[in-house]
Structures are given as structure tokens and as C-alpha cells.
Amino acid sequence: MSELDLAISIALGVGLAAATGFRVFLPMLIVSLAAYTGHFPLSEGFAWLGTPSALIMLSVAAILEMLAYYIPGLDNLLDSLATPAAFLAGTVVAAAAMGDLPPIVKWTTAVIAGGGVAGLMQGVSAVLRANSTVLTGGLGNSVIATAENTGAVLVSLLALVAPLLALLVVIGFCWAAVRLLRKLLSRAPPPKA
User: Fold this and answer.
1) Considering the domain boundaries, does residue 72 fall inside one?
2) For residues 109 and 123, what is the distance between their CA atoms, to the nearest angstrom?
């Protein structure tokens, strides 16, 4: 595997993993559909993602997940469940995308970069939704849900079509996320003793 192929493989995995931070099942559905139609080769051990049963299961899960985030209160509950699920989904989808890398490189990169970026994206989304819930009584959360759905689709498709560009977008998201978190945390009142 050439250095360029290695970089593209890692960028593809990290891009798809970042998308799972917005929605757990939607990027996996897109990967499943691309694999099923022959547009995306899966690495060894992940052929199950390209099967009709995986496609059906992920379709149902993605639709339910997207709709559930439009229900105030339920969306905040889902965030508490989605954070560890995003880390796991990000790790799996990153590993599935990283082709013929040696297992130690594939899984280390998938866990650290894939799971890490998915967890960061999900964490930022949860913080934004929590702030929106406080400020708007949950009525503004549908805007965040729509942005997350759109982000999951766009980042997933971009990762499949232009992985290196997707990686740059993900780096931009991470930079913006860290800045936003710092700003939100600096405004928080100090804990009472």
C-alpha cells in the first residue's frame, strides 16, 4: 500500500467516523448502501455491512434515530445513549473503511482517530442541544437535529467521494468544536462550594 493510499484510507475512515458523531446509524447506512451496490469495498471482516439484512436493519434504525431527535426531551435522552454508541460506531466504520492496513495500525487508528472524532462530534452536539433546551425550552432543538442529519449525510458522502477533502472538513469541525466548547465552558458559572 502506497503512502497516498494509506492517507486516503485513513481520511476515509476518519471522515465516516466523524459523521457517526452527528448520527450513529445514518453514516453506517450510507456505507452499507455503497457496499451493497458495489461502490465501496469493505475491509476483511466487514462484509456483513454490505448485506441486504444489514441494509434493512440500518435503514430502520437510521429513520427511527432521525425522527426521534425531533421529539423534545427524547432528544436529550438519546444524547446520553448516543455518546458511547457514536464512539463504537465511529470505530467500526473507520476500521471497515481502512482496507488492507495491518490490524494493529487499523484498530489503533480506528479507536483513537475514528472513535475519538465521533465522540467529539457527538459531545459537541449534546452540549449544543442541552444549551438549546435551556434557552428555548426544547423548541430550537429541531434546528440542531436538522443540521446534524444534514451533516451526517454530507460528511458521509464527501468522505466516500473525496476522503482528503472530508478530512479537512472534519479538522475544521474539530477546531470549531473546541472553540465552541471553550466559549460555552468559560461562560458557565463556577461550581458552588
Assistant:
1) yes
2) 20
Number of domains in the chain: 1
Q: Is residue 50 part of a domain?
A: yes
Q: CA 110, CA 149: separation in Å to the nearest integer?
A: 23
pTM of the model: 0.85
Please list the alpha-helical segments (H only) found in 70-140. 74-97, 103-109, 116-136
Q: What is the pLDDT of residues 118-176, one digit of tens each?
A: 998 898 888 888 888 888 888 889 999 999 999 999 999 999 999 999 999 989 988 88
User: Which one, of 29, 24, 27, lies nearest residue 122 by Cα?
Assistant: 24
Question: Domain range spanning residue 99?
Answer: 3-180
Residue 185 included in any domain: no
3-state secondary structure of 99: coil
Q: State how far the Cα of 152 lies from the Cα of 30, in Å rounded to an integer.
A: 10
The answer to whether position 94 is within a domain reads yes
Helices and strands, counts by H and E, the chain: 8, 0
Q: What is the rounded distance in angstroms from the CA atom of residue 128 to the CA atom of residue 41?
A: 35
